[in-house]
Amino acid sequence: MKKLLLASLVLASATQGALAHEIKSAKDKDKIPAFDITSAGATTDGRLTTFIMELAGVAGSVKPESIGQLTGSKVESYVWPTDLDPSVVGFDKESGILSLAITAHPDFDDTPLYDENQDGDPANDGADWHSHWVVLTEDQSCSAGLKVRDVSPGVDLLPATAPYLPIALDSPGMSPILDGQTAKITVPISDSENASFDAVTAELQVNENGEAPLLCVTGVHDVASGDLTLPGKIMVSK
After folding, report:
1. How far is 176 from 80, CA to CA, in rounded Å?
2. What angle do CA 97, 80, 159 make, to 5 degrees?
3. What is the pLDDT of residues 27-73, one digit of tens each?
4. pLDDT in tens, 139-164
5. Exposed e or buried b per residue across 122-133, where buried means at least 16 C-beta atoms within 10 angstroms of its C-beta
């Protein structure tokens, strides 16, 4: 995973155009079934884009254990890296790999505008599965070679719904659907036809000292393509 370079995005967009839009991935008995990807796809109606991931096990059935604090806490995630420019959702242009993520993390809430568990408190929802746009960049100090890009709120460009953490993370409130072996989410992204994507299940961890790199990818459960070449294509829904 440490060898995954941002240059792969250029290679993917140049060479993968003729491939089918859906990505197939063989089951692996050595992987956690809830994170073992069997296929991934994405469609658009020109206004909304839907990303889908099929798993060998029950989607969302495995969450991180709470450690009772933010620093050092873990995040489990279902992620669709894309070759869409980060500026399409409000981040700095050409600042990394724009990725859509469904995450769960019991030790912090990074969706302050939304009350996912509908208990009247919008600040205690991190353990429930929720969505983010994130920008990933390389960092070899992270064990999997990637991190959520570190930023300075007020200096770096962030979407209006970002929680203003010092990372390139947005919390726009799109509701994920985890049903049986399917993880699915629809987002308001237009003109996405033929954009490239991949599917990844991964674990992230907040830096134990609370400093940059603040949120590292520390373990990869599965990559649909096997090598993060983004072979999938967003197709017009029929």
Report:
1. 13
2. 55
3. 999 999 999 999 999 999 999 999 999 999 999 999 999 999 999 99
4. 999 999 999 999 999 999 999 999 99
5. eeebbbbbbbbb
Q: Give the DSSP H/E element, type plus range, for residue 169.
A: strand 169-170
Q: Which two tokens stand for residue 29?
A: 């008995």
Supply the Cα-derived Rg of the chain in whole angstroms. Answer: 16
Contact 127, 68 (CB under 8 A): no
Backbone angles phi, psi at 132, to 5 degrees: -150, 150
Q: Which two tokens stand for residue 113?
A: 């505008």
In angstroms, the Cα distances linking 64 to 33, 128, 177, 205 are 15, 11, 19, 10
HSE-up (13 A, CA, CB side) for residue 112: 7
Distance CA 33, CA 152 (A): 37
The residues near 98 (Cβ < 8 Å, ≥ 6 apart) are 81, 82, 84, 85, 86, 88, 89, 91, 133, 134, 135
| Residue 226 identity (one-letter amino acid) | G
CA distance 84 to 76: 23
Q: Where are the alpha helices (DSSP H) in 7-73?
A: 7-15
Tell me which DSSP letter residue 90 carries: T
